[in-house]
Amino acid sequence: MTVFVLATANPHKADEMREIFDSLGIESRPRPEGVPDVDETSDTLEGNALLKARALAAATGEAAVADDTGLFVDALDGRPGVFSARYAGDGASYQDNVDRLLAELADVPDSRRAARFRTVIAVAFPSGESFTVEGVLEGFITHDARGEGGFGYDPVFAPVDGAGRTLAELTPEEKNALSHRARALRALAEKLAS
Ligand code: IMP
Known about the structure:
By secondary structure, the protein is of the alpha/beta class. The chain is built from five helices and seven strands.
């Protein structure tokens, strides 16, 4: 059976991905130490996910899975989008990014705070073959940060079916049941099964 090497070095994402892979009966293993990072030079999630997956497949000689996620806010014409990690500048912390987002949306009413997370997962095989799948989670940006769970923009993102709670107020199991990453991983499982 194919074992998928995970490209992410982010422990939160690696945990989420491993749990979901486990629940689907797919074997995965963490990124080996010493594999160099790839510059995310594309201006699309698809492009960056493929760059990361292809580089890891080439470096390890194994099937590789990489994801790239962005938060797309309607009132900001889709920003921060592909630049979500560096929204408040290079080296920005999760808190810096959340602070900037809330500041930019300070005067935006509830009716215009719709947003969505998009995750693109790329799979690359040592043969050079590759494909992408995606998962989307619709929601809105809250006025204040709430909750201790998750990471990134979770404290200010309330999914449409989350009863008003932010992703950071959900248990890890609840987040994994509905998240953009879980949806993308389910699409991946369906694709691999076919
Ligand atoms: P990445 O390119 O997949 O690392 O994601 C870019 C940025 O999006 C991260 O630095 C986080 O700020 C944010 N992000 C990614 N996934 C999530 C999530 O599940 N919840 C909240 N923020 C996320």
